[in-house]
Amino acid sequence: MTTSSQYATSVLYTTVVPATTVDVMTRPTMADWEALDVRIGTVIRAEPNTGSREPALALWIDLGDGAVVQSSAKITDVYAPPDMVDKQVVVVCGFGSLRVGGFRSDVLVLGAVTTHGVRLLSPDMPVDPGSIVA
């Protein structure tokens, strides 16, 4: 993901790499994008991830058709657990589960890194949980 300030980053991992340093030979292709499973989910439960080394929220996200996934997201600079319930978020599925402070994290929640904390990406109007991002 590249932000308008030309930095590549993610919510789960905080390594920030200037986009101008990415080798032209390693840039993603349209096939790389099409291989990703990016969807809209609706947060149904949120609480502090007390086992995480850095402040994070444990999220339970509805992806539709009865599928509920979990994610640990470092978004506490901007969001509190009550803010998250019923919020729609953009997630990347299919990486396989990780353990973050003992909490299973199934998906990567996407957001923009700002000087005021991570601002989550979300649709501008409600959509069905599990909707594919194109």
Q: Please tell me the CATH architecture of the domain at 39-129 by its name.
A: Beta Barrel
Q: How would you classify the quaternary structure?
A: single chain
Report the mean per-residue pLDDT as an integer. Answer: 87
Strand content: 35-45%
Task: Provide a count of the helices.
Answer: 2
The CATH homologous superfamily of the domain at 39-129 corresponds to Nucleic acid-binding proteins
Task: Give an account of the 3D structure.
With 134 residues, the protein is mostly beta strands. It has a domain at 39-129: Nucleic acid-binding proteins (OB fold (Dihydrolipoamide Acetyltransferase, E2P)). Helices cover 7% and strands 37% of the residues. The protein has helices at 30-35, 81-84, and strands at 7-8, 17-18, 37-48, 57-62, 68-73, 88-93, 98-100, 103-105, 108-109, 111-114, 117-120. Strand 4 (57-62) and strand 5 (68-73) form a beta hairpin. The radius of gyration is 15 Å and the shape is globular.
